[in-house]
Amino acid sequence: MQQRPKTIRLIRLAMAAAVLLPCALFAFASWTAYRSLHVLADERLLRSLDVLQEEAAKTFELTNLTMSNVSDLVASMSGADIRQNGQRLHDQFRKFSDAVAVIQSIWIYGADGRALVSSSVFPPPTQSYADRDFFVAHVKGDVGIHYGQVYQSSLNGEPFFTISKRISHNGEFIGVLEVSVLPSNFFKFFAALAYTRGLQYALIRQDGLFLARYPEVPVGSANQLGPQTGFRRTVAQFPAGGYYNSTSPIDGVARRYAIRRIEGTPLYLTAGIENATIRSEWLATMGTHLIFGIPAALLLLMTLFAVLQRTQALYGEIDRRAAAESALRQSQKLEAIGQLTGGIAHDFNNLLTIIIGNLEGLQKQLARADAKVRRRADNAMHGAQRAATLTKRLLAFSRQQPLTPTPIDVNRLMSGLSDFLQRALGEEIALEVVGGGGLWPVEVDAAELESVLVNLVVNARDAMPKGGKLTVEASNSYLDDAYCSRHLDVNPGQYVLISVTDNGIGMTEDVAQHAFEPFYTTKQTGQGTGLGLSQVYGFVRQSGGHVKIYSEVGEGTTIKVYLPRFNGQPTADDPPIAPSARGQTGECILVVEDDADVRAYVIETLGGMGYDVLEARGGEEALRLMTQYKGISLLLTDVVMPGMNGRRLVEAAVQLHPDLKVLYMTGYSRNAIVHQGRLDAGVDLLQKPLSQEQLAAMVRKVLDR
User: Fold this and answer.
1) Assigned domain for 387 exists
2) Would you state the pLDDT for residue 577?
3) The domain that contains 637 carries what CATH number?
4) What percent of the chain has pLDDT over 90?
């Protein structure tokens, strides 16, 4: 492992040498080529400006000629005369505008800014245009030809910019002649001239205002260049034009620009080429030199690169194999525990059913006995219940416990559990339960989720022997691909996050890594089994979630439980199971159980409640009884039995009695009625070990359904 970085570093040094030496030899040629391409780019821009200037000169010459013709037409007219001859002038103006493609319309505005005549419509609009820049420019005096900004047409025409001049009659200002010029004609010509990628052309006023641009100004961008831009500074320094490099504030592209003033106007033509285009051409040129000039260097580089790739791939494969072997060992360890748990759970839960059932009967009989005798019976019952809890936790860790997931509201569950958690923590620890606004529902086993929260809270309490603060918080969360790539046991998506945070003694990194392993505990002997966090881990993984520990010694611990979001609505709480009741006349229960002692206990318990009870040791015997007796109300069967298991028995029994009600009991399901950790739909299940109250209540619930 220690030699890996050194090996990789040596290969990379060899690759660097294979690159640097040819680069040093070709550095001068590269620089020369780069400078030459910049000179060629300037020449290309100059040729473009020559063509642009020729086209623009023709366009503005036609526009000026049209304006002269219009001026001559109205030279002897006053404002009233122009208005009075509106129809005739409208027709003549339309001929003028139609004759020149670049002209959209011709207008004359009176001294008040209202249109007197227009080539577009007759009569012209009555609104005032006195606030427009082309009108304001001529009010105070004769400024000659004014080139205005771009406007959107109010008559459903194309956008236009204005060319205008003052109209006087007998020395008196009577209005403004304005010609609307189409930037689209310039745009089309610019587009036709852009024979290669990366070129940009524009018609810009001296103050930086765009009149036409190719490509178009992006939506939302400013259409005027500021005083500190390369264009404005170049124009100020060289009024006739020049070159400059700049990153366009319009589209953010770095370019080399050439600009030239259109003679007799405050307008400039600009041609720009992207620096990236020049660089691309340079790289293409140098790439050709490199391919044909130094093939040996390239071959060496490729060989070293292949060696590097193979070496890294080899190290990566070694790491992947090590990780896979580690994961396999962990999986085999968990599988071994699961097999061990499954192997003993059925028989052990049968034994606990017999023990707990008989202890319940014994406790009832000893209700008036000596206190010491009752205490011994109570201690025995407590031990049996602890054994049942231990078995349940082992099943939870190995993800083989049958779950009954339902859509639940985590906020409601935590709120209902808060008083109990506070009592479990005691007075020295402050508990804060924080629900999440708009919290998504989850689909989990509510009872098991409560058990998870209790386990986490009790562990946090033990980590704060001198008191402290515990926060239980729920919120919506999203685990992205980056997080899931570091945690292979979880898929990207939406989750509900339940965080349990304490300010206790914390954990070391080594302890946190082993915290979820069964029987691993840092507590003193007798203070814990090491199965609390294992049960949490097993339940969360079986529910499709993810659990993560964050801890620092002396600072505290946060355990985050991620449960998948349920895309639906949480269901209402189930009504409480009715208290146990005696059987009704004629109710017959067929008990199928291969363990004779468990069968005897169940039969005795049900018989004592007033039910008629039939018994069978296995599936074949049960089917024979069902053909003889037609009045069986309920089939109570174990799941795991030799030969025919409980599920196969039920399938055959329903063929004989379609309306038969069924109740399963088991200490270990072996996927007969549980799949992917969930009870099959429509299945009622009693988990061993059974108490008399549980048995009576569940039997009554199924019969009364």
Assistant:
1) no
2) 46
3) 3.40.50.2300
4) 30
